[in-house]
Amino acid sequence: MTVPATPRPTGHPGYSETLPCQEASAQAARTLVKTALSAWQLEELTDTGVLLVTELVANAVKHTTTRLIRVAISRPSSTWVRIGVTDKSRILPHLKKANGDNLPASGRGLVLIDALTDRWGTDLYRWGKHVWADLKVEEQA
Questions:
Q1: CA atoms of 73 and 10, how far apart (whole Å)
Q2: Rounded CA separation 67/115 (Å)
Q3: What domains are defined for the chain?
């Protein structure tokens, strides 16, 4: 079942959507990222943003048993775009280190997120967590 993304403003400015915690939700999350970046005229961040949200959704699906996730794309400032996924698990993600040149097939998501972003992290709440990744907005000439 494909879940359509319906952008809803949340904050100053932002888009978010509550989705089922399942692989199919990655498509709706990608659409939400594309919508937000287009609205902000930041299309140059689309490829990276889509990849980030795909990995964040995949991590939530794989590592939690929550029924729903919340995908959010926001502009905490004029120089940053934040892409995040909230779930009800309090288990913190951790970056796996490669042994030599080998990295297991599972566990590459955060390595990819770490490589593609300027910063990423986790906000822990009493009821769950929000894993986020920030992209720096390059100043336009």
A1: 9
A2: 29
A3: 14-136 (3.30.565.10)
